[in-house]
Amino acid sequence: MEQMKTEQQPGSQVEAPVRMDLKPERIQQLLGDLRGWALGPDGRAIQRIRLFTQAGKATGFARRACRLASKLRQPVLVRIAGTEVTITLTGHPVRGCTGGLTDAVFNLADLIG
Predict the structure, then answer these.
(1) What are phi and psi of 86, to 5 degrees?
(2) Model pTM score
(3) Residues 6+ apart with CB under 8 A from 99
(4) Strands, DSSP E only, in 1-113?
(5) Cβ distance 101 to 91 under 8 Å?
(6) How far apart are the C-alpha atoms of 56 and 107, rounded to whole Å?
(7) How many C-beta atoms lie closer than 10 Å to residue 108's C-beta?
(8) Residue 99 pLDDT more than 70?
(9) Best CA proximity match to 89, nearest among 58, 57, 111, 59
(10) What is the pLDDT of residues 3-25, one digit of tens each?
(11) Do the Cβ atoms of 7 and 18 come closer than 8 Å?
(12) Residue-level pLDDT at 101
């Protein structure tokens, strides 16, 4: 599912991912396949809110989401309020701007569940 190219940044030894923003039609198609996820209010992120019966379970879910994001090197914003967890996913930021939605973002959302 993921399409990722890399480019060498001038003066660096590390290859950085090149964003491949998805078209709105593709975003809607991918969202239809992901239960519980929705497009964020600004259209630059996808979001999921989950409610748990215990705060410990909410924290465990948030921890798992952060580990997955770290492993895949994807940005993630997690908000925990008692037993409610909000996960927000965006693409990699470019020049200080919020990253666009990419296949990698939807891949991570699918893994988080």
Answers:
(1) -115, 125
(2) 0.76
(3) 19, 44, 75, 90, 91, 92, 93
(4) 5-8, 15-18, 38-39, 46-51, 76-81, 84-89, 91-94, 97-99
(5) yes
(6) 26
(7) 23
(8) no
(9) 111
(10) 344 444 455 454 444 455 788 88
(11) yes
(12) 87
- What CA–CA distance (Å, rounded) separates 108 from 103? 9
Q: What is the pLDDT of residue 95?
A: 57
Residue scoring higher pLDDT (4 or 110): 110
DSSP helix/strand/coil, 100: coil
d(CA 42, CA 100): 11
Q: Cα angle at 111 between 110 and 113, to 5 degrees?
A: 65
Q: What domains appear along the chain, each with residue ranges and CATH number?
A: 20-112 (3.30.1360.20)
The number of C-alpha atoms within 13 Å of 6 and in the hemisphere containing its C-beta is 6
Q: Under 8 Å CB-to-CB from 105, ≥6 apart: which residues?
A: 46, 74, 89, 90, 91
pLDDT tens digit string along 57-98?
A: 999 999 999 999 999 999 999 999 999 999 999 887 665 555
